[in-house]
Design a protein that fits this description.
CATH class of chain B: Alpha Beta
CATH superfamily of the largest domain in chain A: Cytochrome C biogenesis protein
CATH superfamily of chain B: Glutaredoxin
Largest interface: A-B, 16 and 20 residues
Number of helices of chain A: 6
Shape of chain B: elongated
Number of strands of chain A: 0
Order of helices and strands of chain A: HHHHHH
Oligomer: heterodimer
Number of strands of chain B: 7
Chain lengths: 169, 179
């Protein structure tokens, strides 16, 4: 019975120790390790960077980044080290060359096209609003007659017959 | 009418994109290796006790230069590794005289007992080594386990197989190494 009670406690202690070791390893790392790690995809994870992941391989990759920083390598050299082994796949920001350049250019092109389209549309709407609406001579005569007839001839309620719109200048 | 056609085209396009995302399944991890046709990284790793007599305490890849090789990465927690293991041992028994098969336990730390049990279960007669810190798996650009590398006699990578290998893949790729 006692053993049964002790098991969860021992398991909790073991988990805490493991987490503590993992955290201690990370605390000792240079903050630049996480900056660089955030540009690398964790190979065994889904949608996680090396900087964020707690997977064993991501921790090891952070360690490699630290060692390379200690050896005086630059950010670009460290990224190239992983790119050499995993290819462009490992980079979370695709390189700006070849077909991958489209990934960078297409959103800009989409914004430009959408912005241009919006400007054209707004201009058209304005032109349509400013345009003089042609009114038939017969309708114009009826409106003039109604105006000349005075208030008495206008309907009592707006709902019953809305007033005719005034002709635009 | 024209406006309706534009709206239908946009909604149709977005729906098609949505359905594509839903139906395409899991993302394809079968990314071609960046090491293809390049020299594979060398390594020098500790060997499991079972192979000490033949290979000594450590296996240095450089000592076996000039031989075609099949390098298989596995872990004791990996289900597909159990599925492919009998095929690897069968291929080793068939081609072991001409091709060096090497098993590398990786992506698990200090799991000697589990590794030993895995090796004994499939009676692996080819050397198995321990990549405790996963450095070799990173050097080989591994995405996960199992992955198998088919290396030509000149040390360049001919093919990388992601996921469990079967008898057909092993026969085809090993025969290609020997041609």
């Amino acid at each position: 019975m006692n053993r049964l009670r002790r098991t969860p406690v021992l398991a909790a202690i073991a988990v805490a120790l493991l987490l503590g070791v993992a955290l201690a390893q990370d605390i000792m790392l240079d903050p630049r390790v996480f900056d660089i790690g955030n540009e690398l995809r964790c190979p065994t994870c889904v949608a996680e960077s090396v900087g964020e992941s707690n997977a064993a391989i991501a921790r090891e990759m952070r360690q490699i980044i630290q060692e390379q920083l200690d050896a005086g390598r630059t950010r670009a050299e460290i990224l190239a080290y992983f790119q050499d082994r995993y290819g462009d796949w490992i980079l979370l920001s695709p390189p700006r060359r070849g077909v991958l350049l489209l990934v960078w250019l297409l959103p800009v092109a989409a914004v430009l096209v959408a912005g241009g389209g919006l400007i054209v549309l707004v201009r058209r709407w304005r032109a349509a609003a400013d345009a003089v609406t042609p009114v038939a001579a017969e309708d114009l005569a009826r409106v003039r007659a109604a105006l000349a007839g005075g208030e008495a001839e206008t309907p009592a309620s707006d709902e019953a017959a809305p007033p005719a719109p005034a002709p635009r200048p | 009418m024209k406006r309706v056609a534009v709206v239908v085209a946009i909604v149709g396009g977005l729906t098609a994109l949505f359905l594509f995302g839903l139906l395409r399944g899991a993302p394809d991890r079968n990314v071609p290796s960046n090491l293809l046709n390049r020299q594979v990284p060398s390594f020098d790793l500790p060997v499991y006790e079972r192979y000490l007599a033949e290979f000594g305490p450590r296996l240095d890849l450089a000592d076996h230069a000039g031989r075609p090789m099949v390098i298989n990465f596995w872990a004791s927690w990996c289900g597909p590794c159990y599925a492919e293991a009998p095929h690897l041992e069968a291929a080793q028994r068939r081609y072991g005289d001409e091709v060096l098969f090497i098993g590398i336990q990786t992506q698990e730390r200090d799991a000697r007992a589990a590794g030993r049990a895995f090796i004994e279960r499939f009676d692996f007669t080819f050397p198995n080594v321990i990549d405790d810190d996963s450095r070799v798996s990173i050097a080989y650009g591994l995405f996960g386990v199992p992955e198998t590398f088919f290396v030509r006699a000149d040390g360049t990578l001919a093919y990388k197989h992601v996921g469990p290998v079967d008898a057909a893949v092993l026969t085809e790729r090993v025969e290609a190494l020997l041609r």
